[in-house]
Amino acid sequence: MVELPGVCLVIYPFLRLFSDRPAKTLLLFREESGGTLSERQKTEGRTVLLTDFLVRKPFLVFTLYTGICLLSLTALSWHHSKDIRESTALKAAEAYSQSVSAMRSFYSRHVVPRAKNACATVSHDYKNSETTIPFPATLTIDLANELREKGSAFTFNFYSAEPFPWRGRRVLDKFEHDALATLNGKTQERVVRF
């Protein structure tokens, strides 16, 4: 309860634009005996003041409402487009990864045996010999390097926790460590970083 120091008069004519109610006058007063406003009277007073503001300033109210709606729509649109971009990137990376794996599998099953039957050797050092073809892993690494050098939109890395001795020690970043740990855990979980 809030005590009023004197007589408070709030007049609000309900316009017939919104209802058929007649004009009302709310008269709040403090009785001589030290009366106070009830919660109902305070609520009615706040409602009357708010409604009065809304009727007297419709353009301001409309502008605020429109601004809030536009900001909300912008935020939702940005969030939705971000989700679409991430989903599209994941699907593309998955398809690309499957293509590289299929290429390695095909090369291992069809090209390497035929090359061996034709007396060719398989080695990591294939560039120095006319009768040598690369290991499937070497082919994949060299393909990734070639794509990177050509500025391809899609590139990939092919790495292992235990690389071949001739590859030297490669320093793995946190993402690569996390990805290898997940793969070594034999789970189907994907490791993703944007």
What does the secondary structure layout of this molecule look like, with pairings?
Layout: E1 8-12, E2 24-28, H1 39-56, H2 58-117, E3 121-123, E4 132-134, H3 136-149, H4 174-184
Parallel strand pairs: 3-4
Antiparallel strand pairs: 1-2
Structure description:
With 194 residues, the chain is mainly alpha-helical. It has three domains: 8-56, no CATH class; 65-158; 159-194, no CATH class. 53% of the residues lie in helices and 8% in strands. The chain contains four helices and four strands, in the order ββααββαα. Strands 1-2 form a two-stranded antiparallel ribbon. Strands 3-4 form a two-stranded parallel sheet. Helix 2 crosses helix 3 (136-149). It is rod-shaped. The protein starts with 7 loop residues before the first strand and ends in a 10-residue tail after the last helix. Mean pLDDT is 77; it is low at 1-34.
Q: Order of strands side by side in the largest beta sheet?
A: 1-2
What is the radius of gyration computed over CA atoms, rounded to a whole number of angstroms?
Answer: 37 Å
> Which secondary-structure class do the elements indicate?
mainly alpha
Low-confidence stretches: 1-34
